[in-house]
Specification:
Pfam families: 7tm_4. The chain has 317 residues and is mainly α. The chain contains ten helices and five strands, in the order βββααβαααβααααα. A hairpin with a 2-residue loop joins strand 1 and strand 2. Helix 3 runs parallel beside helix 7, helix 5 packs antiparallel against helix 7 and helix 8 runs antiparallel to helix 9.
């Protein structure tokens, strides 16, 4: 493809994490195990919520959405990265790169909005428990979930279109583990100030706005918890929010570190490690956090395991 004296690329080359073969094989084994744990962990969380009627509540409806987002986000990046760890020519076609950017960016945006929605759910549960079932009815939960998916997808579509309209000229080496937004924008052979402004605006809309809503929700939640007279009551209210708050710190912390200041962004290695953490560890940790720190989920696991144990005993006899 050409226009004037400029030549446009048909594919990109991802430089990845390392050029050493032994290191790449070790990383392949490690990332494959983590990815399998991620897929299985999120699958079992969704299955558990579907099977146990006690978990058919707004909180676990949103957790189902979060698990689907996590496993989809990891799948948009990790399988291709695993393949590239075992081959020398780490090429990704132009269209595939655009698709990867769209899905990873979109799913990340969906997660940010979804975490804000989950914070609102926790706010209602702690601050207005008597009207919780009236406020968080099925119709509202569905609309909030749809809003999360649509807003993240629309932002991603806009960013993908304006990014891949940039002339890349002969720049085809992406110094990253995937077709990440900032890494692709850096390839452009024209001024990218308008793109950086667009990234900043979208960061404010889909990252900082939900983050501020989460912050406001937790200010109200903490204020309400401190007014509870009994120590046991305060402990119970805190545990209601502990899992979500832990996930919020992980997800928003990494994203703010990466995206909120494109012009003064960290080193390339830091960007790679941050993206790696967000793509591999966060989706794996989320189901673990909710399983370990949540009494209802632990109780559902014990019930399911008990049923499976009983069924196995019957089959054995």
């Amino acid at each position: 493809m050409g226009m004037g004296n400029q030549t446009y690329v048909r594919e990109f080359i991802l430089l990845g994490l390392s050029s050493d073969w032994d290191t790449r094989v070790s990383l392949f084994v490690l990332f494959l195990i983590i990815y399998m744990v991620t897929v299985l962990g999120n699958f079992f969380i969704v299955l558990l919520i579907r099977l146990d009627s006690r978990l058919h509540t707004p909180m676990y409806f949103f957790l189902t959405n979060l698990s689907l987002v996590d496993v989809s986000y990891a799948t948009s990046i990790v399988p291709q990265m695993l393949v590239h760890l075992l081959i020398e020519h780490k090429a990704i076609p132009f269209v595939s790169c655009a698709a990867q950017l769209f899905f990873s960016l979109g799913l990340g945006g969906i997660e940010f909005v979804l975490l804000a929605v989950m914070a609102y759910d926790r706010y209602v549960a702690v601050c207005d428990p008597l009207r919780y079932s009236v406020i968080m009815h099925g119709g509202l939960c569905t609309r909030l979930a749809i809003t999360s998916w649509v807003s993240g997808s629309l932002n991603s579509l806009m960013q993908t279109i304006i990014t891949f309209q940039l002339p890349m000229c002969t720049n085809k080496y992406i110094d990253h583990i995937s077709c990440e937004l900032l890494a692709v924008v850096r390839l452009a052979c024209v001024d990218t100030s308008s793109n950086e402004i667009a990234i900043m605006v979208s960061s404010i809309v889909l990252l900082m706005t939900p983050f501020c809503l989460v912050l406001l929700s937790y200010i109200q939640i903490i204020s309400t918890i401190l007014k509870i007279q009994s120590r046991e009551g305060r402990k119970k209210a805190f545990h209601t929010c502990a899992s979500h708050l832990t996930v919020v710190v992980l997800c928003y912390g990494m994203a703010i570190f990466t995206y909120i200041q494109p012009r003064s962004s960290p080193s390339i290695l830091q960007e790679k490690l941050t993206s790696l953490f967000y793509a591999i560890l966060t989706p794996m940790l989320n189901p673990m956090i909710y399983s370990v720190r949540n009494k209802e989920v632990k109780g559902a696991w014990q019930k399911l395991l008990g049923q499976l144990s009983g069924l196995t005993s019957k089959l054995a006899t």
